[in-house]
What we know:
Blueprint: E1 2-6, E2 9-14, E3 24-29, H1 38-44, E4 52-57, H2 70-108, E5 116-121, H3 123-134, E6 139-145, H4 151-162, H5 170-178, E7 192-197, H6 202-215, E8 218-222, H7 234-250
Parallel strand pairs: 3-4, 3-5, 5-6, 6-7, 7-8
Antiparallel strand pairs: 1-2, 2-4
Helix pairs in contact: 2-3, 4-6
Amino acid sequence: MIEGIAAGVPFVAVPPSDTDAPAALVVGWHLMDAPASEQAMAEAVPMAGLRAWRVYLGLPLSGKRLPEGGHDEVFRLAGSDAVLNVFEPVTEQAAGEFPAALAELRDRLPGASGPLGVFGGSAGALVALEVLARGDAGITAAAVASPVVQLAPMIAANERRFGVTYSWTERSRAVAARYDFVNRAGELTAPLLLVAGADDDVAVREPAAALHEKLGAELVTVEGMAHEFPAGTPGAARVDAAFTEWFGRKLRG
Length: 253
């Protein structure tokens, strides 16, 4: 396992068994719930059976990129305005910095010249979908777990979870409309795998099912899994197996 910084983005990279031959490159983003860092995501979803470099990028406002004040400051920002202070800046920054990070990873990782896959979980899935929709990275396939497919229902879920009321504004509604990948399904042109926990909130399950229907994407439902899938849990094992099989099938050659 290699840890480093690529174009300012912290990463963990795991090589294929043979680094002398060209290999696929699979790059993704963790959750803000568990697994909540690049290291934790690498442990939860190692994709060890995949003949590819697996690279796990750190999200803004998480892990090594926590702001001054740490998790308390992130909670304060989210409590003030989760859409404008957390979801929008995290997604925009992570998606915006991806092309430069990808170019550096291609250059630094031996043999990482094959087809590209992207993946993510929850907030990291939102980043993966945005990167896929932008269409400037030459992505061959994508996979997302516990995905934020539509932002507005996720804000409603957080209202229920934390017993708060979010005050929508014209600007935050525009952001939520932008992060609605059921409506933007036509922009998702690479094959997509959706993995959702059977026990997750309807804010995740229903948009994932709607995108599955609209796009014809593959959908795997994991019985007994809620939103998180920390390393060592049955949910993580199922996500790992689904991602490994999917990318193994889609990134061949």
